[in-house]
Design brief:
By secondary structure, the chain is of the alpha/beta class. The chain is built from nine helices and seven strands; from the N terminus they run βαβαβαβαβααβαααβ. It has a seven-stranded parallel β-sheet with strand order 3-2-1-4-5-6-7, with helices on both faces. α1 (15-26) runs parallel beside α2 and α4 runs parallel beside α6 (152-172). It starts with 5 loop residues before the first strand and ends in a 6-residue tail after the last strand. Bound molecules: NADP nicotinamide-adenine-dinucleotide phosphate. NADP nicotinamide-adenine-dinucleotide phosphate binds at residues 10-11, 13-17, 34-38, 62-64, 89-92, 112-113, 139, 141, 184, 186-187, 189-192.
Length: 246
């Protein structure tokens, strides 16, 4: 389905990013597995792909660092001569009520979750326009669609990512590049593992399908959006959330 394609997945050392990287790799894409802190976990993602007969490499860069990330994307394009798929998945949370949220915690989440995606999107734009093809998928969140108490920083970044997605989709549509956002609800990963039992129970009550999702539930949609089967879809926000944001 994706043979001959080159893909970059940011934050692919674990969780949703790993599941996306494995799905793309399993379906024939060469995957650049980005990580920032978790080198061993990134190697395990690469191994999971190669064990399934795919091709992958790990690459460290901090998406919150504009220069480092721009240079990394340029290096990937030079090495492979093209870039077909970009998945902006790297993300962090620093939750707290707005009244008590520090400037540092607001900036850190915006810099990683929103500015990081701006940086990679900007860095791939020229190449994808030249190719007259490309698929960009940004991992937003239902928090960005609905807002969420305790996540003013995170919801702002994820809502911003939707604006970035739609703007880029409009700018690059005439060159055959599609740009979409995927908005997961509660998915079982390290990010949600830290939530208290009380918060998890309250969360499940808000999910019509009655349970948290799995990283693979998100990866299946990303795989579809990255394929030519989705060639007539751009500028959309698609929720994978058990019905939370209907
Ligand atoms: P996770 O298990 O905590 O994994 C986060 C990933 O992001 C890790 O691979 C981490 O890599 C990477 N990362 C963090 N900061 C980075 C940076 N500055 N540069 C490069 N990579 C960085 O989280 P997850 O649950 O899989 O979340 C993945 C995405 O889905 C995030 O954007 C998150 O906001 C979104 N999402 C998650 C949920 C959920 O319920 N889990 C719901 C909605 C949206 P290192 O460890 O190597 O630094």
């Amino acid at each position: 389905m994706l043979s001959g394609k080159t893909a970059v997945v940011t934050g692919a050392s674990k969780g949703i990013g790993r599941a996306i990287a494995v799905a793309l790799g399993e379906h024939g894409a060469h995957v650049v597995v980005n990580y920032n802190g978790s080198e061993q976990a990134a190697k395990e993602t690469v191994q999971a792909i190669t064990e399934k007969g795919g091709s992958a490499e790990a690459m460290k860069f901090n998406v919150a660092d504009y220069t480092e990330t721009s240079e990394a994307i340029t290096e990937i394009i030079q090495k492979h001569g093209k870039l077909d798929i970009l998945v902006n998945n790297a993300g962090i949370t620093k939750d707290g009520l707005m009244m008590r949220m520090s400037e540092e915690d607001f900036d850190a989440v915006i810099n990683t979750n929103l500015k990081g995606a701006f940086t990679t999107c900007k860095a791939v734009s020229r190449q994808m326009m030249k190719q007259r093809s490309g698929k960009v998928i940004n991992i937003s969140s239902v928090s960005g669609v609905l807002g969420n108490a305790g996540q003013a920083n995170y919801a702002s970044a994820k809502a911003g990512l939707i604006g970035l997605t739609k703007s880029m989709a409009r700018e690059l549509a005439s060159r055959g590049v599609t740009v979409n956002a995927v908005a997961p609800g509660f998915i079982e990963t390290d990010m949600t593992k830290v939530l208290s039992e009380q918060v998890k129970e309250a969360a499940v009550k808000q999910i019509p399908l009655g349970s948290f999702g799995k990283p693979e539930d998100v990866a299946e949609l990303v795989l579809f959006l990255a394929s030519d089967k989705a060639k007539y879809i751009t500028g959309q926000v698609i929720c994978v959330d058990g019905g939370m944001a209907m």
